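Q: Give me the 3D complex with (2R)-2-hydroxypentanedioic acid.
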Amino acid sequence: MGIAEGFIDRLTQFLGPKGILTGPGDLEPYTVDWRKLFPGRAACVVRPASTKQVAEVVQICRENAVPIVPQGGNTSLAGGAVPDASGTQIVLSLARMAAIRSVDAIGLTMEVEAGCVLTNAQNAAAVEGRLLPVSLASEGSATIGGIVAANAGGVNVLRYGMTRNLVLGLEIVLPDGTIVNGLRHLRKNNAGYDWRQIFVGSEGTLGIVTAAVLRLLPRPKHSVVALLSVADPKSSLELLALAQEELGDQISAFELVSAASLNLVSKHSGLKVPVAAGEWFVLMEAASSLSGLKDGAEAMLGIAFEREIVLDGVIAESAGQASELWALREHVTECEAREGKSLKHDISVPLSAIPDFLRATGQALAAGFPEARVNAFGHLGDGNIHYNVLVDEGLSSEAITRIVHDTVASFGGSITAEHGIGQYRVRELARYSSPSEMALLSRLKHVLDPQGLLNPGKVLLR
Ligand code: 2HG
Ligand code: ZN
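A: Here is the predicted complex, encoded as structure tokens.
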């Protein structure tokens, strides 16, 4: 089915020239993800400047039965924000709605429009001495609407939870064009169903996030960052338990990185690893406003060395050194992409099962695909490993993913802990969910979007 005549004209008339892109060269950045794995085509890209304009665009699309793909920073690793290949969908970019409407340093909230880039929101909170704790490698491009729609995770989930835990209020445009304003700055609100949470993580399939009220925290005055090498994943779990015993909830990040991942980083970025090699590395950060944090961290590491949980390590002596240690972790994704084709597996299993999961999956892969190279790293504190597999042409992606996900399922895990389903994992979701769960998801989708106009083909096939 083609686009109805006059549809683009009507949008152009309504939005003005700044609000719509139609030239093939202009559309390109919006129709493919940054890894260039999910190329699509769009009838046009609309760039509304207000919630009212978003609602009006949705109305026009509804009247013409044109599907809409909402887009923020387009940093999804699951092809969640790009159109399909038909050329009949439009991309609705929230980029022009980027205002930070308010920062309330006393009430610890901020109200932000969907297109605001995450770093800008973090900086606005920091100016007021407050912390917006969502922290991701893609934070310089990811937007507030995108992180809400994707329920983004990142490196601070261990302490502060997923984006879901930080969303106090939302403004949504529904698939029928209704604006629902729930921009409340409240800590407690038990009035009716908590409909916000249906939209958080819905990946733009149920409604379009146009603004959000986010919870802030006091900004910790001190932080300690350490890079440590350990013999195996079991030792990293012992280290996590020890760190939590000694430092409590001051631990804000606890990342596991394999030697293979750091080798990729050294090879492609030239960054040096300042710790003697082990098979695995832990990058941890603790933060607090109380003094004595560094002494506490050093004492904890003393015990870890004594018990031979840690083989070698360094504690950052300055903010600059802390950033250098973090850079090693943050470059893994980019360096993996430079190495070649990879299959992403964003899995989680119960924390205590991580060592067995890594062993079982490694063995099964080595038996079936000895040439496949594993790049495993991730958020150990959350039980979330990015079990990515570098594959040369000719290897069966499907069979490799089957091995990884079947092993995940056998440990009671999830096929996506933080990146979401997008278009990449639609079939995998159906495969590993119960029929009753899938039926519930379909019913929710149908109730809110009976015409199937919002981000079709993402999360659910239809
Ligand atoms: C990270 O933890 C991101 O760095 C990206 O979630 C993970 O590249 C990946 O698979
Ligand atoms: Zn991650």
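A quick observation: The mean pLDDT is 97.
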